[in-house]
Amino acid sequence: MIRLTQNMEGDTGHVEIIQSSDINEPFGVGNHLNRKSSRKPDVHQKCGCTPKVLCFTAAVIILVFIFGYLIGYLVHRNKDLAPTCAPSAFRYEDIPHETGAAPLMDWDDVKKLLAQKLTTSSMDAVLGSSNHRAGSPGDEDLGNKVLKKFKEYGMKTWTDEHFVKVQDPPASGYNRIVFKNGPEERPTGFLSYSASGTARGAVLYARYGEEKELKQLKDMNIDMNGRVMLVRAGRISFAEKVANAAKVNASAVLIYPDPADYSIGESSPLFGHVHMGSGDPYTPGFPSFNHTQFPPVQSSGLPNILAQTITAGMGLNILRQLGGRAQPDGWESINRLGDESDVITVEVNNVLTEKRINNVFGVIKGFVDADRYVVIGAQRDAWGPGFAASTVGTSVLVELARSISDMVENDGFKPRRSIVFASWSAGEYGSVGATEWLEGYLSSLSMKAFTYINLDGIVTGQNGFKVAASPLLHSLVQNALKEVNYDKDKSLLSQFGKNNWESTILEPLRMDSAAYPFLAFSGIPSVAFRFHSGSSDYPYFGTTLDTQQNLNSITASQVPQLAVRAGQFAGHIALRLVHDHLLQMDLKKYNQLIRSHVVQINARVKNVQRLQPQLLPKALTVQWLIMASGSYSRASSALAADIQNSDLEDIEMCRVINDRIMTVERNFLSPYVSPRDSPFRHILLGSGPHTLKALTSHLDSLKTANPDANAELFRNQFARATWTIQTCANSLAGDIWSLDNEI
Q1: What distance in Å separates the CA atoms of residue 616 and residue 604, rounded to the nearest whole number?
Q2: Cβ neighbour number for residue 262 with a 10 Å cutoff
Q3: Sign of CA dihedral 328, 329, 333, 334
Q4: Whole-number average pLDDT of the chain
Q5: Cβ–Cβ contacts within 10 Å for residue 696, how many?
Q6: Which positions fall inside the Peptidase M28 domain (predicted)?
Q7: What is the spatial distance between Cα 375 and Cα 451, in angstroms, rounded to a whole number?
């Protein structure tokens, strides 16, 4: 028999070869005792021992040996019965199904049970309300319904109360716009967290307000200083549109739903927020609990310019009257960009109010590592009916809780780790409820929550399927796509990702997703997904037209069926993470992402040194960054080797390995930036000057001698990003004497 064991004092293991005859064959044991007996008479005679003492001694030796043999036999038998950990944390397809004894259930049986529990009939009884804005009586009533359901399923429940500041439209006044000498318009839609006041300037059409489109306008030598930007909704968030306009010194932004993108009529109002961040912007980095004595402070993501939504009719009316230069090629419009005579007045009078919100939780506790958990969450508030925005996700959340609770209670399923179900409030204001929870318990959550699964907006169509996830979860996502059926004959993967699933299904995680702060702020691997209609976004988000009828019209009345598939996909990921001994996270996926950034930075550094040698001297080298990248690669490979050479039948050993895996995402958060100034601190997937993407952009600016570029600042950011990667590698390596630090 070959037994793999690990030296607990370090990372190196050894292989102990024990022949079966050494354990089970009595002949060898008898001979061994006989040989000892044949040598003892002379010794005993010399010592003067009596025959009575010799007999007693021999009997004791035989009894001790037999007792030890029985213990060894029982231990060996128990290990043969115990389920083993997966041999590798990195190649998902190599992981065998666990078929050991209780408490674990075979993975195929777990999948079948979930498929049996989640049905379209159960999804028909959806949880919704016609009016459930954050902090409203409808929101509170819906939260109580979710809480009651969790209690009915036998789950431990609790709530988390916060007092948050949000902007609402003026109760007694109004927001308004006046274009040229035309009539005053009073839009009923609004953008929370806009600056307040009045702005007057010439209109400039900027299409979707993306950075590349503003660069096109700049290349045309158009002065954007003080202009009022007219932009279409879609492609990027409202907050990103306003932030981009603020960078070019615009005075205000008007956002309208163009009929080419939104089939909502010419008079439907739009609602949203423009905080370039998440959570309560008046308590950045800390929770909005009642009576907290923090000094007045604001998030750096709050805009300092006005922002207002207008209807499609208002936007088209302005667009038709614009003069000035023709739009750039590819903008697909015959209208003009606007000139200095196209003056408009914008007045925003939003009111800052405090609201009490409640997050609702239920937990199914694990049977081995109960203090480690996956979180499944969905927002329950909405601007209007919010059927796609919140109702479907909340219904799937409750149905998953019911199904898995039933599996545990009645079918013998025993998850190793816990599953937390969360119903968030104030999601429409920028994932406020979820972010405040993260801020309140960050030190605990970052150590114990190993994945977040987001259920917001999971059904917005039926023609496509998209997933946004941490690279650590890509292999797990791929496996779920293979195993979850779209219909009787096809899996999700064969239906939507036949050729290259990464290019057809994967997409970047958007900042307005509740999964984003979990990943980029807290360092918790996260996943969001959705059924969608194709190339265009769901047109009813942020409107009062997000109804069951309109969602049925887009999905051909397949909402229950799509919700079941979405629930099975989310449930598959969650159950796999709490079923297996090792967390199925592919550490090597980050190797590719880091190397890609290193290649880009290296090429740009050389270009700047060639074209602008006075900015970056030859002494500056990318070698440190290359070494840090290599350290991470070797650390991830070393962990795979440790797993192969360890006694993975040991529960504590599995826990130690899982804890090392859990540090990866968290250690990609830059420790050198403030959560107030740059809340999304992830250097690879976050947002801000500390990211590797920002370093690349900074080098592009240095190459063209842009006056905004700062070589000294770049060198500081470069050094900090390098050491953040090295720190992650050090943590992944495990023991301090196992570090691979060439820097």
Answers
A1: 11
A2: 24
A3: positive
A4: 87
A5: 14
A6: 359-559
A7: 6
Cα maximum dimension of the chain? 126
What pLDDT shows up at residue 71? 65
Identity of the residue numbered 11: D
DSSP conformation class of 381 = -
* pLDDT at site 85: 44
The tokens for 669 are 């958060």
Task: Express each pLDDT in 466-525 by its tens digit.
Answer: 999 999 999 999 999 999 999 988 999 999 988 899 999 999 999 999 999 999 999 999
Is the preceding omega at residue 51 within 30 degrees of 0, hence cis? no
Give CB contacts under 8 A, 24+ apart, made by 328-334: 328/216, 328/217, 328/220, 331/207, 331/213, 332/260
pLDDT average, residue stretch 290-313: 87
Whether residue 135 is predicted with pLDDT greater than 80 in this model: the reply is yes
CA gyration radius for the chain?
A: 31
Question: pLDDT at residue 258 above 50?
Answer: yes
Buried b (16+ CB within 10 A) or exposed e, 465-479: bebbbbbbbbbbbbb
CB distance 502 to 483 below 8 Å: no
Residues 6+ apart with CB under 8 A from 602: 622, 625, 626
Provide mean pLDDT across the span 352-376: 96
Residue 125 phi, psi dihedral angles, 5° rounding:
-85, 70
Q: How far apart are CA 438 and CA 433, in angstroms?
A: 9
Q: What is the pLDDT of residues 413-443, one digit of tens each?
A: 999 999 999 999 999 999 999 999 999 999 8
* 146 in Cβ contact with 127 (< 8 Å): yes
365: pLDDT strictly greater than 90 = yes
Taking alpha carbons only, the member of 257, 224, 181, 211 closest to residue 541 is 257
Complete DSSP assignment for 467-492: EEE-GGGHHHHHHHHHHSBSSSS-BH
Contacts of 210 (CB under 8 A, 6+ apart): 235, 236, 240, 241, 244
pLDDT of residue 87: 38
Per-residue pLDDT at 162 exceeds 50: yes
> Would you say 203 and 228 are in contact if contact means Cβ atoms under 8 Å apart?
yes
User: Long-range CB contacts (< 8 A, 24+ apart) of 497-500?
Assistant: 497/465
CA 73 to chain centre: 47
- The pLDDT value recorded for residue 736 is 73
Burial state string for 89-127 with b = 16 or more CB within 10 A and e = fewer than 16 = bbebeebeebeeeeebbebebbbebbbebbeeebbeebb
Structural tokens at position 23: 């354990």
Length of the chain: 743
**Within 182-306, where are the H helices?**
211-219, 238-247
657: left (phi over 0), alpha (psi -120 to 50) or beta: alpha
Per DSSP, helices labelled H in 207-253 are: 211-219, 238-247
